[in-house]
Amino acid sequence: MRTRKFTITYFILLLLLLASCKKTKPAPEYRVVKAKDGYVTIAIDSLEDRVSLFTYKYKGQNINFMIIRFSPERIETYLDADYLCYKDKLGFKAEADRLICVHHGFSFDLNHPESWRGNHVPIPLNSIRDDGFIKIKEELLKKAYRFFR
């Protein structure tokens, strides 16, 4: 009888645990871009004033990244993820001169990126500036898949 009570209790706890497990939502979708000749190429004059968000699709997932215009001369690319919150696939949002981690609300001053520290900063993504375009190797975006699956 005790064994049966234990088994029933164990089974109920297992069901409760399974019911509480949440499925991961897909990352949001932004302006979808595709690769050509091994690069995703985006015209600089098509970028927003500060933060532009993009989606590259790979293996059924949205690989999100952003291009941040710190100044006309300084334009950098980042994944729309940080090392701590990437599993939640919430990324960042831009408000005025701040970049904000959607999950925890940590914010970073877009006027002073040199002061960004910690595990909540966006993950850098190497890119090339070439004759009015930002070019990102498709291979790098495919490697970023692990942050968005």
What does this structure look like?
The protein has 149 residues and is an alpha+beta fold. It is 17% helix and 34% strand. The protein contains two helices and eleven strands. The longest helix has 19 residues, at 2-20. The radius of gyration is 20 Å and the shape is globular. It starts with a helix and ends in a 6-residue tail after the last helix.
In the residues, how many domains can be counted?
A: 1
Tell me the name of the CATH class.
Mainly Beta
Q: What structural class is derived from the secondary structure elements?
A: alpha+beta
Question: Proportion of β residues?
Answer: 25-35%
Q: Any idea what the CATH architecture is?
A: 3-layer Sandwich
3D shape: globular
* Termini gap: 45 Å
| Total of DSSP H or I helical runs spanning 4+ residues | 2
Largest sheet: 4 strands, mixed
For the residues shown, what is the average pLDDT?
87
- What's the CATH H-level homologous superfamily? Rieske [2Fe-2S] iron-sulphur domain
